[in-house]
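Running low. Got one?
___
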Amino acid sequence: MFVPGRGDGVVHEFDRELELTAVHEGFSRPVDVFEVAGDWWVLDAGAARLRSFDGAVVETPAPGLVATPVGGAGDRRLAVSHYDDDRVSLVDVDSGTVWTAESPAYPFGSVVV
């Protein structure tokens, strides 16, 4: 289990017995943690980027609030909602932003059909 500490810039990692196993630091306002093709990534509402626990960074057009994995198990793309910037993006963790579009005010989530 991962618990983003939005106010303190860290992500706490717990095992199945709810014992703390790791503290991942270096974020501004982490809001979500998700797995993309075997790698764990953090969405940071205070920085225009995604960052993996391994240290890889993917720049995004604006800070994100919600990300939804796209496609199947091997796909490395995410639909990202940029709440404060009225945009949504498709981001590939290998090559960066694929596209960005303006959206109605304050897109809170993303649904991929």
The longest strand covers residues 30-36. The radius of gyration is 14 Å. Residues 37 and 74 are 5 Å apart (CA to CA). The chain has a mean pLDDT of 88.
